[in-house]
Amino acid sequence: MSLLYDVTLRDGNHALRHNLTAEFVADYCAIADASGVWAIEVGHGNGLGASSFLVGKSAHSDFELLSAARGNLGKAKLAVHSIPGFATIKKDLKPALEEGVEVFRVATHVTEASVAEKHIEFLANESAIVHGVLMMSHMIDINGLVEQARLMKKFGASAVILMDSAGYFVPRDVKERVDALKNALEIEVGFHAHNNLGVAVTNATTAVEAGAMIIDGASMGLGAGAGNAQLENIVAVSSRQGYQLSPIADFLEMSRLVEASYPQFLPSTTSSSIQSGLAGVFSGYAPQVKLLSMEMGIEVSILWVEMAKRKLVAGQESMIREIAQDLMNL
Amino acid sequence: MLKPKIRVAIIGTGHIGTDLCARMLLDDSFDVRAFAGRRDDSPGLAMLKGKVPHLISNGIEGLLEVVDEIDGVFDATSAFDHKAHWLELSSRGKWMIDLTPSQIGSPLVPELLGKNLDMQISPDVVANYSMVTCGGQSSAPLVYAIAAHSSGISEVEVSSSIAALSAGPATRRNIDQYVQSTENLVQLISGCEKVKSILVLNPAEPPVMMRTTVQMKVEKCDLEKIRETAREIVEQIKQYVPGYDLVVEPYLNEANIVSATVKVTGAGYVLPEYAGNLDIINAAAVQTAKIHAQRFLPDSVEVTR
């Protein structure tokens, strides 16, 4: 049966503009540890070492947050997301290993898996559990996707995770991709949904039914843009579908904790998120797009469409201003 | 009387080495004597067949056989190989321009000579200059311009996005080395301990031009002066990197962060236009060689500065 992978304390940090506190991490982990989730991912929204002017500064360092989580985890594994180009082995991966992180997800844009080689090799040699993550996975055809996943496997990843970072997929897309990967490669497959089009939970359960081993979700959907697949909903739907992934009680409590702690930050599917989803642009850009559209008086939708035209990938926040300036000069 | 030329060799026949060679063949200051790779079937060697007196396919060994014809060598191989090359060539009295991230030599951003005290032309003809990284070459002028008119700099960040097609296998495998050497250079120029460098590869088609953004947290700054210096220095760099453009002028946000962005469009000798990252490091290498050589061959080159 599929394993649940909780990204509330990592992707949720996008929704909190990277202001997640160590206290909340500790409180959340105290409940989530026994809930039945396989792993809990913690840190800056863009992963280890990503706190920066470019994508946003963390209020609390990766290591403060990881240490707060570590103290309250016994059953669930402690996990991190890490992007080469932001994180390095020396400054980020080694200290995270020392902090007791057990699962590392080394992430690249879907066409750039080769950048992950050294990081995955290093972690595999250290006997950590390593997954290769392909972000913005809608930006490649299925054959290309299989080739990139094959590279992740070759470097030493034990699973490949497809991220629908823009919230662009509908269930059919998810099934085709999970099927293709399972047919082509001997590797576990994971899926990470965003809710721009309102189908994140359905996409997640579609992935379960197609045989994906690892399913990402966040309590209350706390995540970038329109948020992630709501973890408690995945669990609820799974029981109605007849393959209960876990008992639901703790998940409802985790959801209530998020709702009570961050009521003003709960993500929802809005006109802006639907536009970004249809355009296939990285969900994490929502706050910058909102700010710049106010600062420069540009329609949000015009910005999203232009960003899609220029094929921005994650981590190009500074380019949004240039695009907005160009639009204003037209 | 003909002016003496700078006699050079290039080792490494990948994209960077081939572009460097082609670029210097078109430059009157240089007499390109040798182009050395390690494979008989190197496309770079094939492309420049008949244009360079010594096309060498057995690497440094072959190059050492003609070393007497050469004043200095450009190394576009790898950080690992550069160590060995430097040992061989320095003992024979040759200077080297290092385009690998080995960090053996002193980092040099040609436009900052005479501006930043750590940027120096060696008093000794046998010198090793490190071109650092494309992110380093493209960000350093902005870091300098902002630092020159700011006080209380507490944090510096440089982020570059480059076309995925322009990032070769060596850059991909050694992305940590890229990050580390860029950070070391930024530390040197800003004088700030807390620095961060970020590299993002963008696979869009048609390929995107390189962009580098510098963001510096300061206590106080004179934004007008920063803008003036940034514009000046960008104009100077355009003399040898015509595609270097200031696309977002320095601005200050409410968090006291000064930001600015440059775009680098390649000159397209051998490399395509989108490879501005490779263009800027090659242009800097050529410029550095001219400035260094001028000191020791006073009648040779005219350096456009």
Gross morphology of chain A? globular
Rg of chain B, nearest Å: 19 Å
Distinct helical segment count of chain A? 14
Please give the number of β-strands of chain A: 8
Q: Biggest β-sheet of chain A, characterized? A: 8 strands, parallel, barrel
- Cα end-to-end separation of chain B: 24 Å
- What is the radius of gyration of chain A computed over CA atoms, rounded to a whole number of angstroms? 18 Å
**Average pLDDT of chain B:** 92
The CATH fourth-level homologous superfamily of the largest domain in chain A: Aldolase class I
CATH class assignment of the largest domain in chain A: Alpha Beta
- Proportion of beta-strand residues of chain A: 5-15%
Could you tell me the CATH topology label of the largest domain in chain B. Answer: Rossmann fold
The low-pLDDT segments of chain B are none
Give the CATH level 1 class of the largest domain in chain B.
Answer: Alpha Beta
Instruction: Tell me the structural class of chain B.
Output: alpha/beta
Chain pair sharing the greatest interface: A-B, 29 and 33 residues
Task: Give a verbal description of the structure.
The complex is a heterodimer of chains A (330) and B (305). Chain A is α/β, with parallel strands linked by helices and 330 residues long. Chain A folds into two domains: 263 residues, Alpha-Beta Barrel (TIM Barrel); 59 residues, Helicase, Ruva Protein, domain 3 (Orthogonal Bundle), CATH 1.10.8.60. Helix content of chain A is 45%, strand content 12%. In chain A, α4 links the parallel β3 and β4. In chain A, α2 runs parallel beside α3, α6 packs across α7 and α7 runs parallel beside α8. The mean pLDDT of chain A is 95. By secondary structure, chain B is α/β, with parallel strands linked by helices. Chain B has two domains: 143 residues, 3-Layer(aba) Sandwich (Rossmann fold), CATH 3.40.50; 142 residues, 2-Layer Sandwich (Dihydrodipicolinate Reductase, domain 2). Chain B has nine helices and 14 strands. In chain B, the strands form three sheets. In chain B, strands 3-2-1-4-5-7-6 form a seven-stranded parallel beta sheet, with helices on both faces. Chain B has a five-stranded mixed beta sheet with strand order 10-9-11-14-13. A two-stranded antiparallel ribbon of chain B has the order 8-12. Chain B starts with 5 loop residues before the first strand and ends in a 9-residue tail after the last helix. In chain B, 57% of the residues are buried. The model of chain B has no long low-confidence stretch (mean pLDDT 92). Chains A and B meet through α14 of A and β9, α6, α7, β10 and β11 of B.
